[in-house]
Sequence to fold (185 residues):
Amino acid sequence: MSFMPCLGFQWLGHYPLKAQYIPAVISRSIWRYASFPVENFQTYTSGYGYRTSPLTGETQFHQGLDMAAPLGSYVRNWWIGRVISLSDHTACGTMIKIQSGQWQHIYCHLMGSVEDTPQGRYFIDQGGGIIIWQGQEIPGGARIGRIGMTGQTTGSHLHWGLKHGDQYIDPELVIKEMFRYQVSS
Fold:
C-alpha cells in the first residue's frame, strides 16, 4: 500500500487526522480539489533542493519549484484557502501566501503590486483584472495572479513553494500525486 501526505482539511468533509500520512487508497480522491498552478505551462526550470544559483553562482537550497510560462500567463490557486500574507520588493518579488489547513502555498514573481489602505492590505494586477485582499478566502482553481519577473529572477516563471506545518515540501511530489489521481480517474 502506498502512502501520501495528508491534507487533513476538515471543511472538505474528512475526519480530523492525527498522523501526517494516510493510505493513498483512502485519500486519492482528495486530489480532485487541487488545481495545477500555471496556465500556459512550458517547463520546470529549477526543482526543489540544492542547486547552483543562476544569479550568484553559489550553491543554495531552493525551497520551491520554478515553472516557466509566458509573461502574463495566469496563475491559479492550488487549493481553497485564506490569504495570509502579501508582499513585494523582496527576492521573491510580488508574492501571495495562502493557508489551507496545515498547508501553506507560496506564489512568487507575480505581476502587480501590494498596496496598504486603511481597509487593509491587498494585491492588485490591473492588467490581469485581479484584486486580492489579505484575509480573503480564495477557491481552488481561481486565478490569483499572472506570471511576472518581479524580485530576483532571470526569466518569466512562477516560484511555487509548499509548506506542511513548518516544513517545506517538494512541490514535485504533490504534482505527481495529483497526476496519479487524474490518470486513475
Summary: The first helix runs from residue 24 to 27. The radius of gyration is 16 Å. Confidence is low (pLDDT under 50) at residues 1-26. The longest strand covers residues 103-110.
